[in-house]
Write a structure and sequence with these properties.
Helices cover about 35% and strands about 25% of the residues. It is α+β, with helices and mostly antiparallel strands. The longest helix has 19 residues. The radius of gyration is 18 Å and the shape is globular.
Amino acid sequence: MEFTFLDALSLPGDPAKPNDDAWGQTSTAAVVLDGATNLCEPLLPGDSDAAWLARFAARRLMAHAQDGRPARASLEAALGEAQRSFAGLRRRPPTRNHENPHASMMFVTAAQDGFDALWFGDCGALALPPAGPAQIVGDAFDKRAAEARRVRMLADAKGLAPAARASRPEFLSALRAARDTVNTDKGGWLFGPDPKAAEHVRSAHVAAAPGTLLLLASDGFLALACDFACHDADGLIAAARDKGLEALGIQLRAVENDDPDGRKFPRFKTSDDATAVLLRLG
C-alpha cells in the first residue's frame, strides 16, 4: 500500500521563536518530529539546536525511506548522520547531556497489509479505518497525562502558575536534571546524535484496510485530545478529515489562550509547537 497526502499543519508555539517541530512525507513513509526545547545556549549555528535536529532527521529519514531502506535501517542511518553532523557543526562538545539536542518522533512506513511504526517519546499516530474505532499508536496520551501531573507538582512546590513565563527559571534546574537522563539507562530514549537510540526505539505493526486515515502528530497538536479533551481519538481524526487541520489549529490556540497560565490544564508553556500530517492508506 501507499500513503496519499491529504493535509498538514505546523504551528510554532510562539511566533517569535523557532518552530522546533518538523515533518516529512513520501508515498511510502511519513514522519513527525518534536525537538525538545533548548535548556541552554545553542551549540550549533542558528538559534535552536532542537529545530536543527528535527529538520535534519525529517530530511534524512525521508531520503533513506525513498531509497527503499527498511524503516529500522533508515533510522539507524539517520541517527549516525545526526551524530556526525552535530560533531562537525557544534561550537564545543556538550558538558552535560541536556546540552545535546533530542527529539520525539513518529515514523511510519507503508506495508502490504497496513503500516509499520517506530517512535520515540510523545509524538503519536491515530489510525481510523473505514469502519470501526480509531487506534492510538505510540505513548503520547500516557506521557502527556504524566507530564501534566509533574507540571502541577512542580508549580505547587514553587507557588507559581504552571505556564507563567516568570516560572521558567524556577523550573529550569528540574528540567535540566530530567533531560540529563535522556538516552541513558535511567531515562527514556529519543532521537538524537546517538546511534544507540536505534536499539531502544518503540515499534508496532498495524494491520489496516485501504481507506484508513492516518494522523501523525506532535504532542502539541494531540493536546486537543489528550490534554484539553476537545475530542477523543475518533473525533480528532474525523475533525481533521471533515474540517481540516487549520481549523483544528485555530481551536487549539483558542483553548490555550483561554487558559494562558495553565491553571486549568497544567503545562510548561501556554502554547507548544503543534504539527500534524493527515494521510490516507490505500
